[in-house]
Amino acid sequence: MDLVAAVTKREPNPNIPELQPGDRAKVHIRIIEGDRERIQVFQGTIMRIRKGGANQSFTVRRIASHGVGVERTFLLQSPRIEKVEVLGHTHVRRAQLYYLRGLKGKAARLREKRTVAAQQPEAAPIAKIES
Q1: How many domains does the chain divide into?
Q2: Does residue 111 form part of some domain?
Q3: What is the DSSP string of 13-82?
Q4: Which residues does 100 contact at the CB level (< 8 Å), separation at least 6?
Q5: What does the longest C-alpha to C-alpha distance in the chain come to?
Q6: Cβ-Cβ contacts under 8 Å for 60 (sequence gap 6 or more)
Q7: pLDDT per residue over 81-91, tens digit each?
Q8: Domain of residue 38, CATH code
Q9: Of 40, 38, 21, whose CA–CA distance to 90 is shortest?
Q10: Could you tell me if residue 50 is inside a domain?
């Protein structure tokens, strides 16, 4: 029973930021092949997030060669995840983006979320050079 309590009380990975469906993300995974270890990057759109304590997971979808869709599910608490980089946020109105499976090409694009740009001081007007 102590083992179950230890796993559920485990601290979240600090290298995983707050994720939302529709985010474009790069997931760096530690792959072990024989006695060697390497980092593999899986980049795509986050389709869903399943919450549930130690069993939290998220699914990332990308389009591989020849237009084949590849989905991969990662456990949030997994020690194999090195880090997750969020590349951008998109505007979605669903919690699970399963409808992306049926879309191809430009139809599968998601609209980028716009953020309010920091107010920049106005530049001095450029003087006209008369020749």
Answers
A1: 1
A2: no
A3: PTT-----TT-EEEEEEEEEETTEEEEEEEEEEEEEEE--GGG-EEEEEEE-GGG-EEEEEEETT-TTEE
A4: 45, 47, 61, 69, 108
A5: 86
A6: 25, 27, 42, 43, 44, 45, 46, 47, 71, 72, 73, 74
A7: 999 999 988 89
A8: 2.30.30.790
A9: 21
A10: yes
Q: Which SS3 state, helix, strand or coil, does residue 130 take? A: coil
Which residues touch 43 (CB under 8 Å, ≥6 apart)?
24, 25, 26, 27, 60, 62, 87
Give the DSSP letter of residue 9: T
| Average pLDDT of span 29-35 | 93
- Distance in angstroms (rounded) separating the CA atoms of residues 52 and 97: 19
Residue 48 identity (one-letter amino acid):
R
**pTM for the complete prediction?**
0.76
Confidence label for 52 from pLDDT (cuts 50, 70 and 90): confident
* Rounded distance between C-alpha atoms, residue 82 and residue 18, angstroms: 15
What's the domain range around 14? 2-99
